[in-house]
Amino acid sequence: MAYGLVVHPIEHLRVVARATGTDASVIVREAAIALASLRTDPAPLVIACRRIVERHCELGPVWWLCARLLASDDPSESALASADEIDSDPTDRQIAMALPEGAVVVTIGWPAIGGAALMRRGDLSVLCADSRHRSSSFMQRLERYEIECDPIPTESLAHAVAGADLVLIEAVAASPLRVLAPVGSHVLAAVARSVGTPVWLAAGVGRRLPERYVDAIAELIVVDSDVSEIEIDDVPIDLITHVGSIDGVSDDVAASLGPDCPYVPELLRTSAF
Questions:
Q1: Domain membership of residue 45 as a residue range
Q2: 243 with 253: CB under 8 angstroms?
Q3: Is residue 261 assigned to a domain?
Q4: pTM exceeds cut of 0.85
Q5: Which of 58, 88, 118 finishes a domain?
Q6: If residue 105 lies in a helix (H) or strand (E), which one and from where to where?
């Protein structure tokens, strides 16, 4: 998305709502800029936040942003501060520092935070499982960073995972009771646990949400979707052994997935511009 012109906040929000195929951090920043302009109008702010989460219900950071704004005494300041937090998310650095030296890591699809962590290290080997044909682009990016990587054929998944040091998957949204991650993550994590390989979850800024928000996202994009169109997996929490967040990597999974935004029930009501 490109926003070089000055537009009315509501029109800006409509553009953000219609955006597809855009990184979550870009959506959050543009939504924050537009929502910050509604500082003196609480009612339109509530409606706008509902509309944004309805249109981008698959993006945990959008729920996180809107919940923080609606709970804030100064939504404008909170919006811009939240955008800065997304942009400066230290989770990839924390994971990079915690990865074992010379580790063999299994990933799936194109993990934005986990991938950034791997690209900070030059001593790792990455085995890439596919999800919705995204792993080839991810491997090309790894190769540009001169990181050794190979694809994993589906029939070789168990063998590859058994020989790896850890599996790294990425949270779309998570709570202490539930994890939503890119499709294929459930199978990968289950295979890893069956052979005793640790499963690390990258839970960056905006991904740790109140339980009811995670349940709402699951209902909207997992339960009601056609099998062939599902983009998100509902990963059992007991398959996760470690969580990487802004605080580092911890094996206290439930504590590490405590929400970093308040629960605001207004977000779960439907509305329209």
A1: 9-88
A2: yes
A3: no
A4: yes
A5: 88
A6: strand 104-108
